[in-house]
Amino acid sequence: xxxxxxxxxxxxxxxxxxxxxxxxxxxxxxxxxxxxxxxxxxxxxxxxxxxxxxxxxxxxxxxxxxxxxxxxxxxxxxxxxxxxxxxxxxxxxxxxxxxxxxxxxxxxxxxxxxxxxxxxxxxxxxxxxxxxxxxxxxxxxxxxxxxxxxxxxxxxxxxxxxxxxxxxxxxxxxxxxxxxxxxxxxxxxxxxxxxxxxxxxxxxxxxxxxxxxxxxxxxxxxxxxxxxxxxxxxxxxxxxxxxxxxxxxxxxxxxxxxxxxxxxxxxxxxxxxxxxxxxxxxxxxxxxxxxx
Amino acid sequence: xxxxxxxxxxxxxxxxxxxxxxxxxxxxxxxxxxxxxxxxxxxxxxxxxxxxxxxxxxxxxxxxxxxxxxxxxxxxxxxxxxxxxxxxxxxxxxxxxxxxxxxxxxxxxxxxxxxxxxxxxxxxxxxxxxxxxxxxxxxxxxxxxxxxxxxxxxxxxxxxxxxxxxxxxxxxxxxxxxxxxxxxxxxxxxxxxxxxxxxxxxxxxxxxxxxxxxxxxxxxxxxxxxxxxxxxxxxxxxxxxxxxxxxxxxxxxxxxxxxxxxxxxxxxxxxxxxxxxxxxxxxxxxxxxxxx
Lengths: 292, 292
What we know:
Strand order of the largest sheet of chain A: 1-2-6-7-8-5-13-16-15-14-12-11-10
Oligomer: homodimer
Helix content of chain A: 10-25%
Distance between the termini of chain A: 62 Å
Mean pLDDT of chain A: 93
Structural class of chain A: mainly beta
Strand content of chain A: 35-45%
């Protein structure tokens, strides 16, 4: 059988395909497919799910005539990790405003709510306005991109495949790679460069993925098992200039089985384009001690 | 008429009284009264509203038998500023789990949603476990409390009354008070000490208020009008030791009419007890320039 022509509305890049939402019978519900290529181990990446929910939020706003498609602020609570496969996204436009609108979007699988997200949506200038009015947030200092180390999706000796590392190109500063050889630096910080693997430019939706795509910065403090995200908040500040972004992810404190982590993202022109915080759970071995 | 005895279930402190929620006809709905004493100008403080919503979330969980009362992670989007007076809080338990539960709570007035909040709730150890496993977040360095300056609720020459400053005692480092004399430092940072005015100890609920009680740190960059919060995310990490907490609030960047601000709170023993981020809108005069 001859190959079929690609429909013009089929996205030609991995991110847009994997976050696509399809209308459902009800105008505030969407169906989507959680792609097995955007996982950490067997579970989908949280930032990827947040981007999918944000896309549905933007489409729901469009049904009411609102032009807002960019998540200015995205907050999510993670209830259960869904599996790759079909999912339903339920949206509710809370307010459609002139400069900003608010939408709730929750992701369901097997009749259970897996992710509950809320968005303040707007329209970010593209290209951005000339320069920020003021910033105290200088881009993180790190090694040039060609001296940073590309993170693979799988490593010899590791059982876990991190398939999102085939979707993006994440290059970490060699000074922050102690975890890879079992010798964490003790600084609780990871610094790196990122692009999407197929070259799709980073926009507001893709930054939601980028804000949760690094390994946990706790890896540079103590080796642990799976660190499930409890909640994730991302402020998208500007559309990045073309090219790789710089990322700094750093732990605040590890206390009572949870840790907080800040992720900051700058574009090639040094502008802060996103700032994120997450609270995650961490299970430490009984005899664990922190690297110093 | 003789004074009535105080009912035993009437809270004896200002914070618990002002955030009290009463059961409604439906088990997932509550009524409450937004107290005019917790305002900035004529509008209620956002952290105060978030604490009220969190209290309703905990009561809603209790209806289902869950013991979770402490907001581990609170996220809110602010749609409209309500007025002091009656409000309805609508809750939805999204998941009731063993170590954490998720609840949505929205605050309504005049049939309009004003605040939409979601909480990951749990139980923080009280008193806290011995010490954090690891922290990179040393308490902010600031002047001793007796050298800091108590913020008044009203100032000569200012039209606005900040009534929350009568509910708490906020003492700011004199080095960060340039804004008070029209000479911002240009550092975009405020550091201070806080207690509740009536001595009520700070717990997880009260920290939600504390995390949004400082003036905007943009005051130390540029004088502006009202800076409405778009979204606020607070991670509560531990119950504070008795006594005043230290607070640092700092601007990330002011860009395209919005700014992000981080607020960190430490107790008297130096433990990080809360970390918050907010995105707010700022309207700058056309000829505004940033202090340096």
